[in-house]
């Protein structure tokens, strides 16, 4: 098992443009096909239905773009890491681009935080006003948000798990830098928080773009 | 607005009517189910610079993305058109209800998935007519594109609205909406048509002049150039060509399948399509001559591809797409004469690459142990067989040359090979069918169940499941049953009840198709152009994705028929005499009417006709080849 873990490669890639509408499940299938096209010596599962085994450390919500996605798979032969990147880029569809590959260092459970850049376009109010309303809303002692999961709905106070770290308002465009809890134990979807904010204060954006900019471990270092 | 008839803007880039919907989509896509159906950008999709192309073609499939993306013909013609540097073919599918509503609310026109440009100003809008129930979806898509649905109301040269596919063999029920139909196989004629269009566009021709010239291309049918007269009893009296159009339009075929274009790459959908895999075509046409089967006649003559061509096509496609399954596609793949060597050749690379070979159309009479082992070599697929009828007499009437012993032997082979799930297809309401024939369907299924439990080496620890799927028979043009009445809905419902009452085992699961849909199919399949107003009325009152039971409402069609003064039974339930002029008799698909009449007579004598390899039945399709089909 130790040997197998050593051959696990983690490829970092970006998901940008219209491919943001492709769900996690579909990206999974797309990645398996890309690996097949790349002709990289990828390990297949054994059994009646042999298939490529991939792991995505932190699934991305539908509609989000990302500068820091990762996918893990095992290689059965030594391949230079740059070659892994190049061969994937040669066969990726529009909007997917690999930029780094290395043997996996951390386990996905190490992930604690993720950073996002959120750009909101307001149709009826100036961005400045939305920014002030948001800052007031965030200053409340508690921020209860209804979180829907497969197990059902529950209220979560996101106050300790969500922070706006940067705000820029220009005309009707508001750009936010947001940090939110991420990972298997508690994952806070920033649009869920912003949707709650919008519903409670009537500050809904006409259009928004969300880009995941970093995935961090418990010590705020990049997930490796 | 551009000049309608005078000077012509050849390069479309200068035209500001070409609206891009990208920004509009951004605001709605997260509100709809499966947005990936509407974004494009899939691997293998072809994006060109609009400034550098002369002809833009919107290939429209009148159903949702998952269905359309499974269609091989579209993949072939898409790649073929895009192989021409100055032509650009894009894909367009029918939006589902939620998406359509948002598009209409926000004024977003129908667009091509590659460019996200509105298609209303494209040069061609082409529909593939795969089934009659998609006719209203065609109208709906024209409307979503911002176009008039009637051909005569679209005065500009472009977009030229064209249609092909199996339902183009009787296009009369949609003749008012489509400018021209492409009959037969499109690989050559599509490009000839686009070449002519480019010339006409540069010359500044009117639409009328273009259509007149197009009608001179073999395989092109321009319905507005034919005048149809009727007898007082409602049957067709004469079809008169106008303005030099040919009296009979012959369908096009590709003579040599080894030389014809085949795509090296497919657009690989992100979301799962109905058939999400690589596909290679092994043959065209069919040697069998099942008398109910339209495909078996309209795709004649029988032509095979060479084994190494198919193997090469399959390998290239799997390498370029990354698919882990490839299907050997045809009307009857087990009739392919080189199947064993082909499978052997393919296994040399499919096994190491973990690629599964799917054989979708197998016959029960030549399904061997070797074949089953090969199919199961990488992964086990499900097994489906189509005995079509429950009794031997009935199978003889429809010329399904399969015996009960063969069905049982095949199931035995399947069970011994480890399969415990068998699906059997049947039809209800076949000509001359009796209640005994209906009960025979369930009796045959019961014999399959009994067979399983009497097998000494049946798969351990598992029960058997026999799924019986029963469709209603729809008489189709260019088949020996084109003269036959369809069973009435009442009688079909009665027979469905008999089916359920005959079942004695919980291992048998009977499913049947809805009879109103089949009735309407029968009307549209053999209709004439007087049905056009009814189709339009049904669409205007809300019919659009009629192929989907959730959206289909028979009442809309009944209302439409009443308003338009159409007697639906006249088209569906009437016996047509051999000398009646059919609405499609001026179209030639190779098989002669004399042959169809001969086969119809034999059906009524319970007499079979041997398949083409055994004995040439003289259907007439070999005229298109200019020689015999075999030897």
Average of pLDDT of chain B: 91
Sheet having the most strands of chain B: 6 strands, mixed
Unreliable stretches of chain B, pLDDT < 50, 5 or more residues? Answer: 1-17
CATH class categorisation of the largest domain in chain A? Alpha Beta
> CATH architecture of the largest domain in chain A, please?
2-Layer Sandwich
Count of individual beta strands of chain A: 9
Question: Which pair of protein chains has the largest interface, and what are the residue counts?
Answer: A-B, 30 and 28 residues
Content of β-strand of chain A: 25-35%
Q: Which strand order do you get reading across the main beta sheet of chain B? A: 2-1-3-4-5-6
In brief, what are we looking at here?
The complex is a heterodimer of chains A (224) and B (631). With 224 residues, chain A is α+β, with helices and mostly antiparallel strands.
Task: Provide an overview of this structure.
The complex is a heterodimer of chains A (224) and B (631). Chain A starts with a helix and ends in a 7-residue tail after the last strand. Chain A is α+β, with helices and mostly antiparallel strands and 224 residues long. Chain A folds into 2 domains: 99 residues, Pseudouridine synthase I, catalytic domain, N-terminal subdomain (Alpha-Beta Plaits, 2-Layer Sandwich), CATH 3.30.70; 108 residues, 2-Layer Sandwich (Alpha-Beta Plaits). In chain A, the strands form 2 sheets. A 7-stranded mixed beta sheet of chain A has the order 3-1-2-9-4-8-7. Chain A has a two-stranded antiparallel sheet with strand order 5-6. Chain B is of the alpha/beta class and 631 residues long. At the A-B interface, helix 2 of A face helix 1 and helix 9 of B.
């Amino acid at each position: 098992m130790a040997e197998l873990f050593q051959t696990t490669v983690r490829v970092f890639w970006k998901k940008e443009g219209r491919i943001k509408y492709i769900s996690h499940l579909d990206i999974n299938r797309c990645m398996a096909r890309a690996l097949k096209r790349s002709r990289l010596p990828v390990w297949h599962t054994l059994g009646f239905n042999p298939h490529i085994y991939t792991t995505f450390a932190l699934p991305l919500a539908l509609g989000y773009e990302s500068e820091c996605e990762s996918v893990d798979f095992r290689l059965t032969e030594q391949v230079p890491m740059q070659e892994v990147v190049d061969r994937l880029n040669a066969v990726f569809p529009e909007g997917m681009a690999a930029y780094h590959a290395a043997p996996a260092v951390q386990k996905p459970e190490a992930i604690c935080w993720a950073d996002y850049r959120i750009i909101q376009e307001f149709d009826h109010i100036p961005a400045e006003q939305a920014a002030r309303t948001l800052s007031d809303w965030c200053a409340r002692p508690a921020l209860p948000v209804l979180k829907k999961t497969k197990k059902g709905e529950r209220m979560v106070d996101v106050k300790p798990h969500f922070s706006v770290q940067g705000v820029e308002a220009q005309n009707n465009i508001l750009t936010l830098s947001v940090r939110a809890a991420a990972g298997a134990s508690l994952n806070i979807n920033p649009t869920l928080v912003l949707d709650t904010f919008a519903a409670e204060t009537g500050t809904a954006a006409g259009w928004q773009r969300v880009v995941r900019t970093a995935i961090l471990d418990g010590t705020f270092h990049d997930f490796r | 607005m551009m000049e309608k008839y005078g000077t012509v803007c050849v390069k479309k880039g200068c035209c500001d009517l070409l609206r891009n919907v990208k920004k509009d989509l951004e605001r709605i896509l997260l509100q709809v189910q499966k947005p990936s159906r509407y974004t494009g950008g899939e691997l293998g999709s072809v994006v060109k610079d609009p400034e550098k192309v002369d002809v833009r073609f919107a290939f429209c499939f009148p159903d949702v993305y998952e269905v359309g993306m499974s269609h091989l013909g579209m993949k072939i013609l898409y790649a073929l058109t895009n192989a021409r540097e100055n032509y650009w073919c894009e894909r367009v599918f029918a939006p589902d209800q939620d998406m359509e509503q948002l598009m209409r609310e926000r004024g977003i026109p129908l667009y091509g998935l590659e460019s996200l440009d509105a298609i209303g100003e494209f040069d061609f809008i082409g529909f593939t007519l795969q089934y009659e129930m998609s006719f209203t979806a065609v109208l709906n898509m024209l409307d979503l594109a911002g176009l008039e649905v009637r051909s005569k109301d679209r005065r500009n040269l472009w977009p030229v609205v064209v249609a092909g596919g199996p339902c183009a063999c009787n296009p009369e029920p949609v003749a008012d909406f489509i400018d021209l139909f492409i009959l037969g196989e499109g690989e050559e004629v599509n490009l000839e048509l686009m070449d002519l269009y480019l010339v006409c566009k540069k010359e500044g021709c009117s639409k009328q002049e273009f259509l007149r010239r197009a009608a001179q291309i073999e395989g092109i049918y321009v319905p507005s150039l034919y005048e149809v007269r009727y007898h007082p009893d409602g049957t067709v009296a004469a079809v008169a060509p106008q303005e030099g159009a040919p009296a009979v339009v012959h369908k096009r075929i590709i003579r040599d399948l080894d030389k014809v274009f085949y795509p090296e790459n497919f657009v690989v959908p992100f979301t799962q399509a109905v058939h999400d895999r690589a596909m290679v075509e092994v043959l065209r046409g069919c040697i069998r001559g099942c008398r109910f089967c339209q495909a078996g006649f309209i795709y004649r003559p029988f032509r095979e591809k060479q084994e190494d061509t198919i193997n090469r096509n399959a390998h290239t496609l799997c390498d370029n797409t990354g698919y882990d399954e490839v299907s050997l596609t045809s009307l009857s793949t087990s009739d392919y004469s080189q199947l064993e060597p082909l499978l052997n050749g393919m296994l040399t690379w499919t096994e190491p690459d973990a690629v599964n070979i799917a054989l979708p159309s197998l016959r029960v009479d030549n399904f061997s142990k070797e074949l089953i082992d090969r199919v199961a070599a990488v992964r086990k697929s499900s097994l489906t067989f189509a005995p079509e009828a429950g009794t031997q007499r009935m199978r003889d009437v429809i010329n399904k040359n399969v015996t009960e012993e063969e069905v049982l032997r095949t199931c035995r082979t399947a069970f011994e090979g480890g399969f415990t799930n068998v699906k059997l297809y049947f039809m209800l309401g076949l000509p001359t069918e009796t209640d005994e024939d209906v009960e025979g369907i369930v009796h045959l299924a019961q014999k399959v169940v009994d067979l399983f439990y009497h097998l000494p080496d049946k798969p351990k620890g598992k029960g058997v499941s026999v799924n019986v799927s029963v469709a209603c028979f729809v008489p189709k043009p260019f088949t020996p049953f084109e003269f036959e009445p369809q069973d009435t809905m009442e009688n079909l419902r009665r027979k469905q009840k008999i089916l359920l009452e005959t079942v004695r085992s919980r291992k048998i699961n009977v499913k049947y198709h809805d009879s109103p849909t089949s009735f309407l199919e029968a009307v549209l399949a053999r209709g004439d152009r007087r049905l056009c107003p009814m189709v339009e009325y049904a669409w205007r009152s809300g019919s659009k994705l009629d192929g989907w039971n959730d959206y289909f409402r028979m009442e809309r069609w009944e209302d439409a028929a009443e308003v338009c003064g159409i007697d639906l039974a006249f088209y569906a339930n009437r016996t047509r005499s051999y000398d009646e002029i059919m609405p499609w008799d001026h179209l030639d698909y190779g098989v002669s009417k004399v042959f169809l009449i001969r086969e119809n007579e034999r059906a009524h004598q319970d007499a079979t006709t041997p398949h083409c390899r055994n004995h040439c039945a003289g259907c007439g399709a070999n005229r298109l080849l200019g020689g015999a089909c075999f030897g």
